[in-house]
Design a protein that fits this description.
Elements: H1 16-22, E1 30-31, H2 40-57, E2 61-68, E3 71-82, E4 87-88, E5 95-96, H3 101-114, H4 140-145, H5 158-162, H6 195-209, H7 213-225, E6 231-232, E7 246-249, E8 252-255, H8 265-268, E9 270-272, H9 274-285, H10 292-298, E10 302-303, E11 309-310, E12 317-320, E13 326-336, E14 339-346, E15 351-357, H11 365-379
Antiparallel strand pairs: 1-3, 2-3, 2-15, 3-4, 5-9, 6-9, 7-8, 10-11, 12-13, 13-14, 14-15
Helix pairs in contact: 2-11, 3-6, 3-7
């Protein structure tokens, strides 16, 4: 079985002054936690876990939220959303979603499937003319599962494309950098993570729904989930509580490179908050966005034509136990200039959680999310 890998860059050392500035203290954390949602021991354990996580890795700021049985029961901000101006991170601080946004786009796609306006196994040219035909047909299912053969950032173009400052007016316009490139392989025969594949998926969804992409996302995901603080990540827009972005360069905290995420809006160009993501994942876990049957299909590992499986489903990374078997949970991480985070969902226990940071490539996100889940499941009072 192939592993779905997240590659992170870990700085070798961080100056003591940076650690002191970035570490969150329990007294300084910002909270809108509902009363009695978690017992004091659970709240204390979460505070200690996340404050230690920030200090250990020199992360400036973090916002986290937990939903249980369909409701957000805890939300907290740690550290600084803006280091230069000494602005504390809040529970509702807005961060770049990065690739966590793929799960949002995937759920929108499957909602269209349940509305019978999108067939995952039809050639995508039946829904959009924006992406030119290739030697083999490509389907929306292959875009969702990263088996289309469409490339990701690559080679000498990697950093240039990841830090693009071009503002594209539409998801179709954003296909320009790669639409004429050859496929890496025949669709369905291999797996290669592709942000650009999700760009194409955005055009497919527009064509299927007959609606501009962000209008579609608001209708199918943001509005049903009450995600009032989520939007497209437009760097020119004035956004309340938007976090400043940072990177660690040779152990020193630096302002992140300016980027315009319109070149990958459907793949992760959203601006969102931890509580909004927790609401989204909770609705997904509760079967309120898609049916339980559809949810199960989304959380099933993709099988290649040769029979191999990859621990990625329809817009979600499938978590496995030590024996390599799916453990019933799923995640999606994301990292882009100035931000990184993770979304975690456990439908069996009706648990969802998210945390977002304003540091590019923050490490140990998956382990930290699982540690948060253990605290909640071990200490959450009966409801």
């Amino acid at each position: 079985m192939r592993a779905y890998l997240s590659i992170v860059i870990v700085a070798g050392s961080v100056a003591l002054a940076t650690l002191q500035a970035c570490a969150a203290t329990v007294e300084g954390a910002s909270t809108t936690e509902p009363a009695s949602a978690l017992d004091p021991a659970a709240r204390s354990a979460l505070d200690e876990l996340l404050a230690s996580y920030l200090a250990r890795h020199g992360i400036p700021g973090l916002s986290a939220a937990i939903a249980l049985e369909g409701e957000v029961i805890w939300a907290r901000g740690f550290g600084l959303a803006d280091v230069e101006n000494d602005v504390a991170a809040r529970p509702d601080t807005a961060y770049r979603s990065a690739s966590i946004g793929k799960s949002i786009t995937a759920v929108a796609a499957l909602r269209l499937v349940e509305q019978h306006v999108l067939d995952l196994d039809r050639p995508i040219q039946e829904y959009t003319a924006a992406f030119p035909p290739k030697p083999w047909p490509i389907t929306a299912r292959q875009l969702l599962t990263h088996t289309s053969g469409i490339r990701h950032y690559g080679g000498a173009r990697d950093r240039e494309e990841q830090t693009s400052t071009v503002h594209y007016a539409s998801v179709a316009d954003a296909l320009a950098p790669f639409q004429d490139d050859p496929l890496l392989f025949e669709p369905g025969t291999d797996w290669s993570y592709s942000t650009y594949g999700y760009d194409v998926l955005g055009c497919v969804l527009e064509g299927a729904a007959g609606l501009e992409f962000m209008q579609l996302i608001r209708r199918e995901v943001f509005d049903p989930c009450g995600m009032a603080d989520s939007r497209a990540d437009d760097p020119a827009e004035i956004v309340p509580h938007r976090a400043a972005g940072y990177a660690l360069v040779d152990g020193q905290l630096r302002n992140a490179t300016h980027v315009d995420m319109s070149n990958r809006l459907p793949a992760g160009g959203y601006l969102t908050t931890a509580p909004d993501l927790a609401r989204f994942a909770a609705k997904f876990a509760e079967g309120e966005l898609v049916s339980a049957e559809t949810r199960a299909a989304m959380l099933t590992s993709v099988r290649l034509r040769n029979g191999d499986t990859v621990d990625y489903g329809l817009g979600w990374s499938i978590s496995e136990d030590e024996a390599g078997r799916p453990d019933g949970t799923a995640t999606h991480g994301g990292s882009s200039p100035g931000a990184s985070g993770i979304l975690y969902v456990d439908p069996r226990h009706r648990l969802a959680l998210a945390f977002l940071t304003n540091l590019e490539s923050a490490p140990e996100r998956g382990d930290t999310a699982r540690a948060m889940a253990r605290i909640v499941l071990e200490r959450a009072p009966p409801r």
